[in-house]
């Protein structure tokens, strides 16, 4: 037995394995200790102060700063414990938040360039339709529950509408609307109602129009023609839209580059036995 132990003691491989196990254990111990150490340094404190100032528009006092640091410590401990317990695995909300953060990082890798006037003018010309103002209507209506009453009321209103606001049934929305586009009107009263009203002539109470609420006798007070967007008046909005488009392009390029690094394998579906 002693001879066997003596031979094992002289075997370098055995000592190499033992030394490796000791180093591995020491490393795991150091990692465990590091996981239990929360470091509070100046950049972190400055970050907490900046977040506070962004929300309150003033610097925190000593008591508030202590509370901010203690709040960070509490959050850090809970996050580490959640990771230790594996609570972050297969959690769809956490997966989506992590994916979202990576998207933000990819979009910020290339800060949008400050555009010059020529670039903005070109962008405006290529996207002019989104800066044009559509045709709008200013109109009023009387609400009724059935078509026959609405038809009778229309005749009466076209003779005299001085008391039009006292006619019909109460309506949950406004009785008068100003400068509404067809899209806005569709969202409010429905697509068919909006299309019918935009076909109606001005200055008279038109044929009853049905909505999801009931029947309406409507008068268009004014039709406002569509207008082309003015670059000079919209230059700040154009600049914001330009930078947004640049960020979207940067994100698309970053995603294409990232996607190319991964290979997707479709595994065969095993037949159920």
Explained architecture:
It is a single chain. By secondary structure, the protein is of the alpha+beta class. Among the domains are: 2-35; 133-224, Chitinase A, domain 3. Helices cover 58% and strands 10% of the residues. It has ten helices and four strands. The chain has a four-stranded antiparallel beta sheet. Helix 5 packs across helix 10, helix 6 packs across helix 10 (231-259) and helix 8 (182-189) packs across helix 9. It is elongated and about 100 Å long.
Summarize the structure.
With 273 residues, the chain is of the alpha+beta class. The protein has helices at 2-10, 12-35, 42-56, 62-84, 92-108, 117-126, 147-159, 182-189, 191-199, 231-259, and strands at residues 136-144, 176-181, 209-210, 215-224.
- Averaged pLDDT, please? 83
Strand adjacency order, main sheet: 2-1-4-3
Helix content: 55-70%
Radius of gyration: 35 Å
**Any low-confidence stretches, pLDDT <50, length ≥5?**
none
Reading the helices and strands in chain order gives HHHHHHEHEHHEEH
In DSSP terms (H or I, runs of 4 or more residues), the helix count works out at: 10
CATH topology of the domain at 133-224: Chitinase A, domain 3
């Amino acid at each position: 037995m002693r001879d066997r132990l003596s031979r094992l003691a002289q075997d370098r491989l055995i000592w190499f394995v033992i030394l490796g196990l000791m180093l591995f254990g020491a490393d795991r111990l150091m990692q465990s200790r590091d996981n239990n150490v929360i470091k509070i340094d100046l950049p972190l404190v400055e970050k907490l102060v900046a977040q506070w100032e962004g929300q309150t528009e003033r610097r925190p006092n000593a008591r508030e700063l202590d509370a901010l640091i203690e709040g960070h410590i509490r959050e850090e401990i809970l996050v580490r414990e959640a990771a230790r317990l594996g609570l972050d695995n297969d959690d769809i909300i956490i997966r989506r938040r992590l994916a979202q953060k990576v998207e933000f990082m990819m979009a910020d890798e290339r800060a949008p360039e400050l555009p010059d006037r020529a670039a903005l003018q070109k962008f405006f010309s290529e996207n002019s339709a989104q800066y044009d103002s559509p045709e709008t209507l200013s109109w009023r209506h009387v609400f009724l529950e059935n078509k026959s009453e609405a038809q009778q009321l229309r005749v009466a209103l076209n003779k005299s509408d001085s008391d039009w606001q006292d006619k019909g049934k109460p309506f949950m929305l406004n009785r008068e609307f100003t400068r509404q586009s067809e899209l806005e009107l569709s969202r409010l009263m429905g697509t068919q109602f909006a299309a019918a009203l935009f076909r109606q002539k001005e200055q008279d109470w038109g044929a009853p129009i049905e909505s999801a609420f009931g029947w309406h006798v409507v008068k268009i007070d004014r039709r406002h023609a569509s207008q082309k967007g003015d670059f000079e008046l919209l230059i700040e909005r154009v600049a914001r839209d330009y930078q947004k488009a640049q960020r979207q392009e940067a994100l698309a390029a970053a995603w294409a580059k990232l996607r190319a690094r991964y290979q997707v394998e479709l595994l065969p579906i095993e037949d159920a036995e």
